[in-house]
Amino acid sequence: MSLIALTGVPGTGKSTIAGVLRGRGETVYDLNELVNEHGLILGTDRRRGSKEVDLKALGRLVKELDVEGQRIYLEGHLSHLLPVDKAIILRCHPEVLRKRLLARGWSASKVRENLEAEAMGIITQECLDALLECSEIDVSNIKPMDVVSSVSRIARSKRIIKRYMPGKIDYFEEILKWY
């Protein structure tokens, strides 16, 4: 069995890619749906306007999804914090991401928080800190079907593919433009 985190900050295309994977017959779980269906919301972070999720309970639930020999994708920006075999991180240039998040009607502070997280590579760093096998795909200017092809290639691979090694995508310089 292989549990694969399909992760990235909001707006990087996780749901779009997950939808295409489902359409191809892959098993994909939306973590937001699992959290809501199983009542795993502990509360709300009022300052940030986000839900606080019971990650321990979600981790136990994810382990129950274990099906021998089946590849399972877990789609969500918290998926890499769960007991997964590998993480595929969708990355997006902050200016492209800004447009996507503003189109969702997000507040300036929420947009800024997510742009900073993306520019600093927070999710990649969390994966590396957890010693999790991870790969990065820059989705800024490529078609969803090309992203799906890369995701599938990474998911099937027994090793990290050099092209997708973490650290090759670096948006940190973008932060300097903001201050």
Main traits of this protein?
8 helices, Rossmann fold, two-stranded antiparallel ribbon, alpha/beta, 7 strands, 179 residues
Structural class: alpha/beta
Quaternary structure? single chain
Looking at the structure, what is the overall shape? globular
User: What is the highest CATH level, the class?
Assistant: Alpha Beta
Main β-sheet, spatial strand arrangement: 2-5-1-6-7
How many domains would you count in the coordinates?
1
Reported for the largest beta sheet, the result is: 5 strands, parallel
CATH fold name, please?
A: Rossmann fold
CATH superfamily: P-loop containing nucleotide triphosphate hydrolases
In helices, the fraction of residues equals: 40-55%
User: Mind telling me which CATH architecture this is?
Assistant: 3-Layer(aba) Sandwich
How far is it from the N-terminal to the C-terminal residue, by CA?
46 Å
Low-confidence stretches: none
Strand fraction band? 15-25%
| SSE run | EHEHEEHEEHHHEHH
Strand count = 7
Summarize the structure.
The protein has a single domain, classed as Rossmann fold, CATH 3.40.50.300. The protein is built from 8 helices and 7 strands; from the N terminus they run βαβαββαββαααβαα. It has helices spanning 14-23, 31-37, 55-64, 94-103, 108-120, 122-129, 144-156, 173-178; strands at 2-7, 27-30, 41-45, 50-53, 71-75, 86-91, 134-138.
